[in-house]
């Protein structure tokens, strides 16, 4: 194996999640398709070294993500200036945890959630 190709996310409200990931977080849309046979939208977003795939399905069950459920814990996004990114996201009404410092790497990070409660992390790297 060489790299991560994509991360797939099933969302409860396709338009809301597409706006969040593309319009607010800034990941450009690469492709978008409606799959009539599944009553499902699929949107491919450019996340730099990987893609994020957003899917919609009728009535998806909720996913347990806190406290520390088994499985995917969170997605982490690299930012150059965490203070600027936190301020930008807060300007969109997004609540973020206080910035912390990783005791092993001395890097600053914080957490927030997507519209469906999926934990996301900002990780500062120059």
Describe this entry's structure for a reader:
It is a single chain. The protein is of the alpha/beta class. It folds into two domains: 1-59, 2,3-Dihydroxybiphenyl 1,2-Dioxygenase, domain 1; 66-126, 2,3-Dihydroxybiphenyl 1,2-Dioxygenase, domain 1 (Roll), CATH 3.10.180. Helices cover 17% and strands 36% of the residues. The protein has a four-stranded mixed sheet, with helices on one face. It has a four-stranded mixed sheet with strand order 5-8-7-6, with no helix packed on it. The chain starts with 5 loop residues before the first strand and ends with a strand. 12% of the residues are buried. The mean pLDDT is 93.
Tell me the span between the first and last alpha carbons: 27 Å
- How many discrete domains? 2
**Mean pLDDT, all residues:** 93
If you compute it from the alpha carbons, what radius of gyration comes out, rounded to the nearest whole angstrom? Answer: 15 Å
CATH topology of the largest domain: 2,3-Dihydroxybiphenyl 1,2-Dioxygenase, domain 1
CATH architecture of the largest domain: Roll
Proportion of strand residues: 35-45%
* Widest sheet, order of strands: 1-4-3-2
Q: Sketch the topology as an H/E string, one letter per element.
A: EHEEEEHEEE
CATH class of the largest domain: Alpha Beta
The biggest beta sheet, please? 4 strands, mixed
Q: CATH homologous superfamily of the largest domain - what is it?
A: 2,3-Dihydroxybiphenyl 1,2-Dioxygenase, domain 1
Helix content: 10-25%
Structural class: alpha/beta
The tally of beta strands, per DSSP, is: 8
3D shape: globular
Low-confidence segments, ≥5 residues, pLDDT <50? Answer: none
Specify the number of helices: 2
């Amino acid at each position: 194996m060489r790299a991560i190709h994509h991360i797939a996310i099933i969302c409860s409200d396709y338009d809301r999640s597409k706006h969040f990931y593309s319009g607010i977080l800034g990941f450009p849309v690469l492709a978008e398709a409606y799959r009539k046979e599944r009553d499902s939208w699929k949107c491919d977003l450019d996340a730099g070294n990987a893609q994020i795939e957003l899917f919609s399905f009728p009535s998806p069950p909720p996913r347990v993500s806190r406290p520390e459920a088994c499985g995917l814990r969170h997605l982490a996004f690299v930012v150059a200036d965490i203070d600027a990114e936190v301020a930008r996201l807060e300007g969109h009404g997004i609540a973020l945890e206080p910035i912390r410092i990783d005791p092993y790497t001395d890097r600053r990070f914080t957490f927030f959630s997507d519209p469906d409660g999926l934990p996301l992390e900002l990780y500062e790297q120059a």
